[in-house]
Amino acid sequence: MSKQRLEHAFQQVEKSGGKAFVPYIMAGDGGLESLEEKILFLAESGVTAIELGIPFSDPVADGPTIQAAGQRALAEGTTLRKVLAYLEGIKEKVDVPLILMTYFNPVYQYGVEAFSKDAGAAGVSGLIIPDLPVEQSDIVTPFLRQEELALIQLVTLMSPEERIRKIAEASEGFVYAVTVNGITGARSGVSEHLGSYLKRIKQYSHVPVLAGFGISSPEHVQDIGSKCDGVIVGSKIISLWEEGKQDEIHNLIKASNPLIL
Ligand SMILES: O=P(O)(O)OC[C@@H](O)[C@@H](O)c1c[nH]c2ccccc12
């Protein structure tokens, strides 16, 4: 039922005439026990799903904001095992689909099969493993399928056409369209080629296409959201949470969907 929960959430967004909004937060930042409050706040604010980062010592794709959040979470003693156990403990209270974003190393250390089982038991809907190339996804997909977990693939602005097609066709749950060359982090400008890039991905994909990296204002959410099926916002959400500006988080989410009050 896990993957279906994500599909259902996208169908609801489409029916409402809005766009998907997926915030990224770091598990264990502020202590693992604060995660339930964050998840429930975001769910009540109307997000479509939540991308939950697992802190890792060598986060090659992460910009300064996410890296700092990861350092704080590691200092709190957060591990993949603890996060999965915690999620299993709160799963009755959580309706919103959860997507785990983890580098491959922690999954490998855990054991791919055991990890898939525990993620399934924790009620997770999907996985993003940014350093696992599509050619190697067979290492995990047989086990993920048994638990009905989606493996979400990333397309970047650097991907050649043939590769965009391959990744878009293979992706489950949604396609993650990276909208900048570089690492995560809030930015002011948006590439002018974004519209055609997102359209090309869409053309090959049988699942929604969500754009992420550098989205940091309600205007970005609306502008980029109008060119695809939704947006992912990480660094800005993390900074606003740290500053105690939950109302601004709410404004970002609201920009994605007219039905959110
Ligand atoms: O922080 P940003 O620029 O809003 O981008 C989202 C991003 O943080 C989140 O999806 C993410 C965090 N770490 C990643 C590593 C790879 C791909 C994606 C991610």
TrEMBL record:
Gene (name only): trpA
Role: The alpha subunit is responsible for the aldol cleavage of indoleglycerol phosphate to indole and glyceraldehyde 3-phosphate.
Gene3D superfamilies tied to this protein: Aldolase class I
GO molecular function ontology, one term from the record: tryptophan synthase activity
GO cellular component terms, semicolon-separated: cytosol
Source superkingdom: Bacteria
InterPro entries referenced in this protein's UniProt entry, alphabetically: Aldolase_TIM, RibuloseP-bd_barrel, Trp_synthase_alpha_AS, Trp_synthase_suA
Pathway linked to the protein: Amino-acid biosynthesis; L-tryptophan biosynthesis; L-tryptophan from chorismate: step 5/5
CDD domains: Tryptophan_synthase_alpha (cd04724)
Catalytic residue positions: 51 (proton acceptor), 62 (proton acceptor)
EC number: 4.2.1.20
Organism of provenance: Salinibacillus xinjiangensis
Keywords: Amino-acid biosynthesis, Aromatic amino acid biosynthesis, Lyase, Tryptophan biosynthesis
Similarity annotation: Belongs to the TrpA family.
Subunit structure: Tetramer of two alpha and two beta chains.
Catalytic activity: (1S,2R)-1-C-(indol-3-yl)glycerol 3-phosphate + L-serine = D-glyceraldehyde 3-phosphate + L-tryptophan + H2O
HAMAP family: Trp_synth_alpha
Name this protein carries in UniProt: Tryptophan synthase alpha chain
